[in-house]
Amino acid sequence: MYSYSEFDANFLAERNAQFRAQVARRIDGSLTEDEFKPLRLMNGLYLQLHAYMLRVAIPYGTLSSRQMHKLADIADKWDKGYGHFTTRQNIQYNWPKLSDVPDMLDALAEVDMHAIQTSGNTIRNVTADHFAGAAADEIGDPRPVAELIRQWSTDHPEFQFLPRKFKVAVTGSPNDRAVTKAHDIGLRMVEQDGAKGFEVIVGGGLGRTPMIGKTLREFLPEDDLLPYLEAIVSVYNLLGRRDNKYKARIKITVHENGLDDYRARVEERFALIKPQFSGVDQKMLAAINADFAAPTFRREPVTGYQDARQHYPAFRSWADTNLAEHRAPGYAIVTISLKAHGETPGDASSGQMRLMADLAKRYGNDELRISHEQNVILPHVHKNDLPSVYSALRAAGLGTANVGLISDIIACPGMDYCALATARSIPIAQEIATHFDDLKLEHDIGPLKIKISGCINACGHHHVGHIGILGLDRAGVENYQITLGGDGSEDATIGERAGPGFSANDIIPAIERIVLTYLDIRSDPAETFLQTYRRLGLAPFKAALYPEARANAA
Amino acid sequence: MSKPFSPKVVTANALLEGDVIYQTAKGWTRDLSKAEVLTDEADADLRLIEASQQFDKIVGAYLADVALEAHTPKPTHFREAFRAKGPSNYAHGKQETI
Fold first, then answer.
1. What's the distance, Cα to Cα, between the start and end of chain A in Å?
2. Which CATH fold would you assign to the domain A303-395?
3. What element of type H or E holds B21?
4. Residue A554 in this model has a pLDDT that exceeds 60
C-alpha cells in the first residue's frame, strides 16, 4: 500500500491547519456562508437536510486495517457510531458538528487520509476496480496509476475551478468492475504488441443527461498518461461551458463539439505540454509500483475449505455468492455484503468496521477495499481461512450471502439525508430486500442488479442498473420511475424508461411483477435477467408493469 | 387576482450543529410546533431578511409552507416533514428527542 511521503504529510498538515482557521473564522462571523461554502466543499464538508456531512476519500477504494480502525474511531468519537460507504468509494459521516470537523480531519491525517476534492468543481477521488491486484482476469494492478493520478490532481493549480466536477476511474481488467464508461475519464489498461498502455474513454456520465463514454485513444502508451490527462482536462477547462451548470460536464462538451474536434484539440495540447514532462512522473510511478507489490501467497492444498463446503451448507451458500476468482491458486477474493436484508445499503457500524479490519489483518494481507457497489472486499484470503472468516462475519451481521443478487442493491442516501434529493431511496431498497427474502426467491432469480437514485443526479447509478429506480417529487408526492436493461460493465448500456412512475406503495409490487415475468419467460434458469431483457426487450415487462394499458387498448 | 398567501415559517440550519431550526418571535427553536407562523406576505419577506442577516448563527434561511392544525404549524410537503423528524432508516435527528 502507498504510505505518505514527508511531502504528502506536510501538505496535508498545512491544508488542515488552513481549514481549521477557515472554520474558526466562519464560527466567529468573519466569513459569511457564501464565502465559506466553497472552502468547506473543497474539504469534503457538505450541509445536508439534518446535519453536516463529511465525505472522506478512500482513494481507489483501498484501506489498511489501521485506516479502517481510524474510520471506526472517528464514527464513535464525532458521529453516531457508523459510516456510509458510497458509490464513489468514499465514506460519509452524516452527523458531524462544524466545530469538530478540523479534529476529524487531523485524525484522518494520522492514517494518511483526507477529504480533499471529494466535492467542488475539481478532479474528484480517483476510483478503481475493487478487485485490483487480486483478480484472476487482470492485466495489471490499476492502483499505482490511480495513486499517481491522485498525487497529480490533488491541489493541481490549473484544475481547482473547472466548469464542473470531474471523475476518473481506472481498471486493469477487461471485465470492467469500475464502470469506466460512466466517468468523465475512464482508463482501461490494454496491451499492444507487448507494450502496456491505456484505452482512454471520455465523456461518460450519468446524471440528468446519461451518456456512455467514447474512446478518445485506443492505445495510449503508459508513460504518456499524465501529459495526456492534463491535455484532456486542460481543453475541458477552457472549452467546457460555464454558462449553464447542467451543460458543464465534459460529456456535454464532447457531445456539442464532437469527438473528433475534441480529440484534435487534445492532441494539439498534448504535443505542446508533453515536453514539459521530464519523466519525473515515471520515476514517481516506479516508486509507487513498489508500494503495491503483490503479497507472498502461501501454497497449500485447500482441504479445510473443501471440508467446510461439504459439511456446512450456510458456508457453502455464502462461498457460492460472495467469492470471486483470485489470481493465486488456493486464494479467493471475499466480498463482505453491507446489504443485510432490511439494513441500509453501504452502512457499517464502528464495531463492524473494526471486525473487518481485524479480519483483514489476520487473514487478508492487511488490505480492505470499498466497492462502488457499497460492499467491503478482502482481496487476498486463503481458502482454508474462509470458514473462520465467514463465522466471524456472520456473528457480526456481515455474513449475508447475496452479492450480485436482487438484495445487493446500490442506493444513494436519498431524501433521508441529501439536500438535493427529490425522494427517498433507502426505504425502497430495504423493502425490496426484505420482500424478496420473504419470498425466498433471491437465489432462484440469480444475478440481478437493482440501483436506486433519489434524484436525477443519479448517485445511485440507476441508469446502469439491470433494474433502475429513480425517485422523483411528483406534485408533492414521492414517485418512482423504473428503467430496465441498464448495464455498468464493459458492455455499458443506459437503461430504457419503462413508463409512468409508481408511488412508494406501488413500487415494490411493480418490481415483483418485473421479476415474476422474468422467471416466467426466461429460456432456462441459466439465462440471467439481463440476457432475457436483451433477447425480448421491454415489451413483456411493460405489459406486466401496466396491465391496465393493455386492457384499455384491447 | 393573485394567489392567497399560504402560512409560512422561516427555517434554516444551525451553523454549528447543522440541524434544522425554525424562527420564533424572539430567536430560534428546534421544534416546528413552536415556530412563528407568518400569514402576511410582506411580514414574511421581512422576517426572512432579518433571519438571513444572522449568518453567524444560521445557514440557508428560507420560507417553508405550513398548514395550521389546531393553531400548530405542520409541514405540507414531505421534504419538510422529514426535516422536522429525521431520517427514516435510523431513529436519529429530531425524532431522538420526540
1. 64
2. Sulfite Reductase Hemoprotein; domain 2 (3.90.480)
3. strand B20-23
4. no
Q: How far is A219 from A190, CA to CA, in rounded Å?
A: 7
The C-alpha cell of A260 is what? 473528433
Q: Helix or strand or coil: residue A441?
A: coil
pLDDT value at residue B97: 79
**Separation CA B68–CA A166 (nearest Å):** 45
- Which residues of chain A does B87 touch, with a Cβ-Cβ cutoff of 8 Å? 50, 94, 416-417, 426
CATH number of A6-109: 3.90.480.20
Whether residues A97 and B17 touch (CB distance < 8 A) is answered with yes
Closest residue in B to A27 (Cα–Cα): B56
The share of chain A scoring above pLDDT 90, in percent, equals 97
**Pairwise CB contact (< 8 Å): A97 & B88:** no
Closest listed residue to residue A53, CA positions, set A98, A9, A11: A98
Could you read off the pLDDT of A56-65 as tens digits, one per residue?
Answer: 999 999 999 9
How near does any CA of chain B get to the CA of A427, in Å?
A: 7
* Domain regions of chain A by residue span: 6-109, 142-291, 303-395, 410-553
Of all residues in chain A, the one with the smallest CA distance to B12 is A49
Cite the DSSP H helix spans in A295-425. 303-311, 313-322, 350-363, 386-395
* A467's grid cell: 433494474
Interface test with A, best of B13, B66, B76, B89 (most A CBs within 10 A): B89
What's phi and psi for A214, nearest 5 deg? -115, 150
Give the DSSP letter of residue A403: T
pLDDT tens, position by position, A343-360 = 999 999 999 999 999 999
Architecture of domain A142-291: 2-Layer Sandwich (3.30)
Contact criterion met (CB < 8 Å) for B19 and A26: no
**Domains in chain B: how many in total?**
1
Q: Is A140 left (phi over 0), alpha (psi -120 to 50) or beta?
A: beta
Beta bridge partners of A200: A187, A217
- Residue at A437: amino acid letter: D
A36 vs chain B: nearest CA distance in angstroms? 11
Q: Is the pLDDT of residue B2 over 80?
A: no
pLDDT for A1 equals: 85
pLDDT in tens, A156-210: 999 999 999 999 999 999 999 999 999 999 999 999 999 999 999 999 999 999 9
Size of interface A-B (CB pairs under 8 A): 74
Give residue ranges of A with CB < 8 Å to any B CB: 26-29, 32-33, 47-52, 80, 94-99, 344, 347, 415-417, 424, 426-427, 430, 473, 476-478
Q: Is B22 part of any domain?
A: yes
- ipTM score assigned to the predicted complex: 0.96
d(CA A26, CA A214) in angstroms, rounded, equals 43
Cβ-nearest to A80 among B76, B92, B94:
B92
CATH of domain A410-553: 3.30.413.10
A171 touches A201 (CB < 8 A): no
- Strands laid side by side in the B8-14 sheet: B28-29, B20-23, B8-14, B58-69, B72-75
Same topology, domains A6-109 and A410-553? Answer is: no
- Tell me which residue in A52, A94, A426 faces B88 most closely, judged by beta carbons: A426
Whether B38 maps to a domain, the answer reads: yes
B12, part of any domain? yes
